[in-house]
Structure formats: structure tokens, C-alpha cells
Amino acid sequence: MASGPDLQLKGILDACAEGDPASRSKFQDLFGRFIYNYPIRLFHVSENRVADFYIYVFENDRIFRRMAGFEGKVAQLKTYLSYYVLRDLYLEWQRTQEAPPLSFTRDQDTIQSTPSSVQRDYDVFLSHSSSDKRRVLQLAKALRRRGLTVWLDEWELMPGRPWHDALEEIIRTVNVAAVLVGQDGMGPWQMPEMRGCLVQFVERKMPVIPVLLPGSGNAPELPLFLRQFTWVDFRKGLTKAGLDRLEWGITGRHPKR
What we know:
Helix content is 51%, strand content 9%. By secondary structure, it is an alpha/beta fold. The protein has 2 domains: 5-97; 124-251, Rossmann fold (3-Layer(aba) Sandwich). A 5-stranded parallel sheet has the order 4-3-5-6-7. The chain has a two-stranded antiparallel sheet with strand order 1-2. Helix 3 (47-58) runs antiparallel to helix 9 (190-204). The radius of gyration is 20 Å and the shape is globular.
């Protein structure tokens, strides 16, 4: 009979399968790094591609559907993940990488099989949690009014296209990334985005700006590698001083307003 930590783990997995956000966040806290590093350790996947795999694992509840039948102990979970869950998910993900995504041409009635590409130069990519959508939209509109080109998923993701391909591409090409943190901290999908942004910081010195959103209360616990960057504080609202500071971080020029 399971007891102690084993029962607690079973409860977390059951709640994850039922869609409980807190349990899914706890699961990612416990096993997110192990899952992220899995294709690097076993298959030598590059840092540029591993975030795409991480997103695929959690997309459409893939991992939670597979974990629902686990009846073992805490000590056995990583072995179960490696041999029965992540291996199958990796092979599935690899098959999705074999064919380039389809893109439509506006002046032809045919569909061309060509890799998608970002057609515009964007000043900033806004990485955020869906729970903060209202405040994120307010910030994005404020930046647009200042003449900045903003990449926000709600504005830029075209229906019928693989959204994780677009995310990977914008992170590789955007000038600056802003990681927005609200009252609930970082969302589960933000973790691979943040890691992808940090890779770009190392490879091409892309600025990464942590931003505390209105309503976030006390300073949230930021991931270790994100703490090294100077943040912009909007906890008291989208003030002119805060927007000036964020614009300065994005453009490299202090606005004179």
C-alpha cells in the first residue's frame, strides 16, 4: 500500500490529469528540469531545439495523459518517465520535425511547402502567462502607441499554423525579449520561452528584460538565471516612468517625453 510521498505523488498526477493548474505547476517544479534535459542527455538535441520538444511534451496534455496510469513509487518515476513516456514523446516529436510546415501564398491558389518565416522586424517579444492576458494587452497597446513593434501571440499567431514553430522563430530573431511576471509568477509555458531567450542572450547578446506586472504584489521569486537582469517594475500601474524605462531597455535610447 502506498503511503507518504508516494500517495502525495499519486494525488498530484491524478489532479494533473484532471486539469488542475496548481498540480500541473507543482509537477513542472518537480520534474520540469529533468524533462527539459532529457533530449539533451540522451539524444544530444541542441539548446535551440530543446525548448520546442519541451512545449510539445506539455501541449494538448500529452504527458499528463500518459502519466495518469503510473502506480509506482516516487523513486521509480524518473525511470518510468525516461523509458515509457519521454522516449515515446521524443519519437513522436521527431516525426513532426521531418516535414516542413506548410505556408500559403496570397497570389496563388496552391499551397507551398516552405518553412515559415517572420516577415517583420519586431522590437520586442512579450513572454507571459495566459492568466495575465488582460494586463499584458494593456502593456502591449501602450508600447504600440509609442511606435514600437510588439510580438504578442494574440496578435501574431495565425489560425491553422503550428504555434510552437512561430514561437521558436520569433525568439531566434526578435531584437529584445520581455519576460512578464504577474501575481501568480511565471506560467508553465513561459519556462521554455525564458530558457530559449536566455540561449539567445548567450549566443547573440539579445537583451532579456524581466517585467513585474500590475497586481503582482511583492517581488515574485524569479528563476535564478533571470535574476541577473535589471527589471522594470509596474506593480503600481503602467506609469509613464515605467513605460519610459521599458522603452529605454527595448530601444537602447532613453525617451525624452
